[in-house]
Amino acid sequence: MGGEDQALYNLIQKSLKLSPRGLTITEISKKIKKDRNITAKHLDILKAEGKVDTRQVGSARVYWLSERIPLSAFLCFTRNIILILDKDLNIVQVNNQYLSISGFSKEELIGRSILENGLPLISSQKAISIISSSGNEQVISEISYFKDNYEYVYKIEVIPTHFEDGEKGLTIVLEDISEKKKHLKNMEFLARTAMELVELNPDADIYQYIAECVCELLPEKSKRCWVISLDQVTGQLLIRAVFGEAFRKASAYLAGGRDLVGLAVPLQECFSEKSYFEGPLSIRAMRELKHRPLFEDEEFSFYDICAHLFPRDVCEKFLVTNHIGKTYLTGLVWQEQIFGVVGICMGPDEDLESWQVIESFLRQASIAIARRMTEQRLSQSEQDYHNLINEAELPVLTMDNHGRITHVNRKYTDDFGYSLTDIPTRDIWLKQTFPGIQDQHRILETLKSASDSTIKSESILISLTSKNNVRAEVCIQPVLVSDGMLLFFMKP
Q1: What is the tens place of the pLDDT at every residue in 137-186?
Q2: What are 465-490's pLDDT values in tens digits?
């Protein structure tokens, strides 16, 4: 390249540098004071060298300086994997990040085609398909890569590239987005399970649901989870679920071949006594417990975790046979109350990677269990309340603070003939039972005074008309209870 030509190239580049929006050939030729043909020839050479870019705007072609990054800086100062390929998909350059993951030296890779098998990440069928389909356009996609039983996810970016000699090639940028994808997946899991726990049918097996959800987050070969929870009727901790299927069958060995689900486990008593002293606060957080004979530093033996239900030698043989070296233990705890324990069994060389997500899920599950138990207790209390009223020797009618009749006991139906379907509201009850206007006013006044907790309610003597139109004198005693409900006791 002659000195005059070089000066002209420099002049063109200087003109474009001062015009970031770009210039047409006519505009450039005026600035450098050369005719269009000479200007166009030099622009074509600069474009071939990748120093200028161009695009069609209407009938004119506009040129501007290429934004170029030194290759050495591009390769070194990034955490991403970078590969430079020529037009035949041979490797021209790689950075240290790819050397680390591939295990090859740079000398072994330069000149090698990515179409060959054995090159990590970029020789997969999907990666080659993405790279080959790029053409002259930038392409962004995702690929997966499995290493040491772990799935890595990479964002792959294919960028058309021009070399100094004018040849075309491709720059491959690979960004490890495994943690981002994992975080997103975990957030979706927690959002989904939170909604499912709220909407879970009261008759559904919540403990089996907990075990299944925990196993969603475990490696395929380590889906081994059990759930122990409190039985409200007996007050015992029972094994509620053992998941998955192969683990449930294998665990029957501990009980001499009997299925463990339904077995009572005195775990709370065992862990609260000397020398463990475990309570709600200490058992709430997930703990990794290593077991002999696969580990020497044993804090809790598997025999202890099983609350000494099974012989120690049976527990140790079970661990060895099923290659279990660790148990991850987490309490189902809410507001200082232990509802149960969840255990995850894993091999000695495995680590629980999603423990924080599992811990968060089990907090949600603990709240759901507490809510379910509260609802069951309320339902039982309500049933006991109705049973008590039904067994009363006097006729009893209950009314809420909205004027709805909520219950009439058997004695009321037997004596007066009315069932709840006959008198569902206060107005219908008044019309049917007290046809006289004056009597209705007396009942309404009684209702008003009885509903005021500051006024002592008085009984009234009044004539009541039964369903078969028989009148009877009764003494009605209203009683206000804490939830605003009124009970009416009828004395003949």
Answers
A1: 889 999 999 887 778 999 999 988 877 666 888 999 999 999 999 999 99
A2: 999 999 999 999 999 887 788 999 99
Q: How far is CA 141 from CA 126, 127, 392, 435, in A?
A: 10, 9, 74, 80
Helices assigned H by DSSP within 18-77: 25-32, 36-48, 71-76
Closest CA to 124 of 105, 149, 142, 100: 142
Q: How far is CA 62 from the centre of its chain?
A: 51
Q: CB within 8 A of 290, min separation 6: which ones?
A: 297, 298, 299, 325, 326, 348
Beta carbons of 365 and 197 less than 8 angstroms apart: yes
Tell me the helices (H) and strands (E) count for the chain, helix number first.
18, 18
CA distances from 218 to 191, 266, 356 (A): 18, 27, 12
Q: What is the CATH number of domain 71-176?
A: 3.30.450.20
Would you say 169 and 86 are in contact if contact means Cβ atoms under 8 Å apart?
A: yes
Q: Is the preceding peptide bond at 293 cis, omega within 30 degrees of 0?
A: yes
> Which sequence spans correspond to the domains of the chain?
3-65, 71-176, 183-377, 392-491
Do residues 117 and 123 lie in contact, with contact meaning Cβ atoms separated by under 8 Å? yes
Q: What is the CATH number of domain 183-377?
A: 3.30.450.40
Bridge partners for 139 per DSSP:
158
Query: Class for domain 392-491, per CATH?
Result: alpha beta
Q: Matching CATH topology for 71-176 and 392-491?
A: yes
pTM attached to this predicted model: 0.67
Q: Quick one: which of 333, 404, 330, 423 has its CA closest to 370?
A: 333
